[in-house]
Amino acid sequence: MTPTGRVLDRQPESAGILGIFGLAVPEECGGTPVSTPCYVLITEELARGWMSLAGAAREADAGRRVGVEAGMAKLFASETAMRIALDAVRIHGGYGYSTEFDVERCFRDAPLMIVGEGTNEIQRNVIAAQLVKRGGLDA
């Protein structure tokens, strides 16, 4: 299986942890449903992230250099993870802070994706420099 396939296989699992399919909070705890607009926004963000990552993975599978594309996918995915984790905590309400729910771990871990392997601000500078170089704009 390609790296793309492994990553895409995890999408439903990740979405379920964040509570975007069906109930945010189990029925035994009140069964809070997720509103349709919220569901659509979060799903749209997830889809964009997966498409960005899948594009970079396809290029890598083809043997091409994907430093810029992978950097952009990491940047987008980490920013998206933070937004979705925050939305998930909002959806779960007080349960979002409870260690009984996986959303608490996602919310705690999301900032680590932004600062891990270089902060997103540094990542943006590296991407910009590579795009300028790729476009022949450097002096």
Furnish the topology, listing elements before pairings.
Blueprint: H1 3-9, H2 11-17, H3 36-61, H4 67-92, H5 102-115, H6 120-134
Helix pairs in contact: 1-3, 3-4, 4-5, 4-6
- Beginning-to-end CA distance, first to last residue: 43 Å
User: How many DSSP H or I helices?
Assistant: 6
β-strand amount? under 5%
State Rg: 17 Å
User: What are the low-pLDDT stretches, counting only 5+ consecutive residues below 50?
Assistant: 1-8
Q: Sum up the overall morphology in one term.
A: elongated
What is the CATH architecture term? Up-down Bundle
Helix/sheet category: mainly alpha
Report on the architecture of this protein.
The protein is an all-alpha fold. It has one domain (3-25, 34-134): Butyryl-CoA Dehydrogenase, subunit A, domain 3 (Up-down Bundle), CATH 1.20.140. 68% of the residues lie in helices and 0% in strands. It has helices at residues 3-9, 11-17, 36-61, 67-92, 102-115, 120-134. α1 packs antiparallel against α3, α4 (67-92) runs antiparallel to α5 and α4 (67-92) packs antiparallel against α6.
Kindly list the characteristics that best describe this protein.
68% helix, FAD, mainly alpha, Butyryl-CoA Dehydrogenase, subunit A, domain 3, flavin adenine dinucleotide binding, 139 residues, disordered N terminus, Alkylation response protein AidB-like acyl-CoA dehydrogenase, flavoprotein
